[in-house]
Design a protein that fits this description.
single chain, 306 residues, mainly beta, OB fold (Dihydrolipoamide Acetyltransferase, E2P), RADX protein, RADX, single-stranded DNA binding, NA-bd_OB-fold
Length: 306
């Protein structure tokens, strides 16, 4: 059938009601959002954002309501989609935006693709990777992996991807989302090393929409975290350690989940795997810790300072 592309959509969407099919690759995936409220009667008040791209650039795609439980787990970073009967809406201005791995890629930020169960009923088809043709011009997924030795030079809020060998993982903790509201974020702290520094990555991992991964992080696993944000507070305490925290678009992977992921082709990931092959498992296990209370950042020495 006749296809359109994202660049053409942006130029012509106001003059059309029906759109030609789209062929796109998923580059980023947000966590699943529940927006239900007691006074609103909705069967499945879910929403998820994806950043999708073709040869012309990148655009947000929103999966709504009952399509989320049906499709969310199948739509992975790197998946190629053929979309029929989708809607085009003006972009929601306050949503978070991931940092693209390819800084040259054009971003179409004024509109977004809306996938719904009706008005119109969207048809989603997943194209197996072995059937994807080079002439379609779909971009590859690119990453921004850093090593631990590079972290100290990065600015606050910089976006990056990391891979490391887990040496510590803390218990699951809760933080209240907002004061006086019985709603909590779940998170845990982890340390991971990659052989490029004596210091580990300190990772604040909030529960993403991957409970099967989040609950099974343990020492000696190979941990990949994408779309992490650098947190450094040089104003209050210049010597306070730098750490990384998850963003809305972060994905987490552990040993057993790496096969077939696009990042396995990345040069820094391959270097890390080579380093792990030179390590003694027995020696590394002696240095690992699991569980316990991990106060971070460390509280001040006195109540007066606190």
């Amino acid at each position: 059938s006749k296809l359109t592309n994202l660049g053409h959509l942006e130029m012509t969407w106001k003059s059309r009601v029906r759109f030609h099919p789209l062929l796109v690759r998923i580059l980023h995936k947000s966590r699943l959002r529940y927006y239900g409220k007691p006074e609103k009667k909705m069967d499945m008040p879910y929403q998820a954002y994806f950043e999708v791209a073709d040869g012309s650039g990148m655009m947000s795609m929103v999966l709504w309501n009952s399509l989320c439980p049906e499709w969310y787990n199948s739509l992975k970073v790197g998946t190629v989609l053929l979309l029929h009967k989708y809607a085009i809406k003006t972009s929601y201005p306050f949503k978070t935006l991931p940092t693209p791995g390819d800084s040259e890629m054009k971003r179409f930020a004024t509109i977004e693709i809306s996938l719904n169960v009706r008005d119109p009923p969207t048809e989603i088809s997943i194209i197996p990777e072995e059937m994807v043709k080079p002439e379609w011009g779909l971009p590859e997924v690119k990453y921004r992996f850093i090593t631990r030795s590079e972290l100290d030079d990065l600015p606050h809020n910089h976006s990056c991807d990391v891979i490391g060998l887990v040496t510590f993982v803390g218990r699951v903790e809760r933080a209240r989302k907002r004061e006086h509201i019985e709603d909590f974020w779940l998170y845990r702290w982890a340390h991971a090393i990659d052989g490029t520094s004596d210091k580990p990555f300190i990772l604040e991992l909030f529960a993403t929409s991957q409970p099967d991964v989040f609950e099974h992080i343990h020492p000696m696993t190979y941990l990949v975290c994408t779309q992490m944000r650098v947190i450094r507070d040089l104003t209050e305490n210049p010597s306070s350690p730098i750490y990384l925290t998850t963003s809305n678009e972060s994905q987490i992977f552990i040993t057993g989940w790496h096969k077939g992921q696009p990042y396995t082709k990345d040069a820094k990931v391959k270097n890390f795997i080579q380093w792990t092959k030179l390590q003694s498992e027995a020696e590394q296990i002696k240095k690992t810790v699991m569980g316990g209370y991990y106060p971070f950042p460390r509280p001040p020495d006195s109540f007066f300072e606190y």
